[in-house]
Amino acid sequence: MKAIILFGHGARDARWREPFDRLAGLWRSQHPQVLVELAFLEMMQPSLESAVASLAGDGATQITVVPVFFGQGGHLRNDFPLLLAACQEKFPQIALSATSAVGEDLAVLQAIIDFGARAL
């Protein structure tokens, strides 16, 4: 069974996660056959490991982690690979993979351009 984790940075202000909760809700309504969890690098829960554990408990065998970051900064180049490797080691029965940061996708960049154009 396939699943997805939407992985964000995290913040002290609980309201910061509201768009992530909306994003997960949109995923659930548009792709109800694919499980989705949120995970955060720091300051918020669940952690990446907790999200993988939850999905594994629900029967997921393939999990794709989508970093909801604008670009490949230090966290994604340095911290994230270590967290992903630790999860792969702890959950060897799960096929884990990751995409690039969402902000590196041309369609996402175009959506931002379109958003700006609508604001004019």
TrEMBL record:
The keyword Lyase applies. Keywords: Lyase, Metal-binding. Transmembrane segments: none annotated. CDD domains: CbiX_SirB_N. One of its GO terms (molecular function) is lyase activity. It comes from Polynucleobacter tropicus. PANTHER family: SIROHYDROCHLORIN FERROCHELATASE, CHLOROPLASTIC (PTHR33542:SF3). This is Cobalamin biosynthesis protein CbiX.
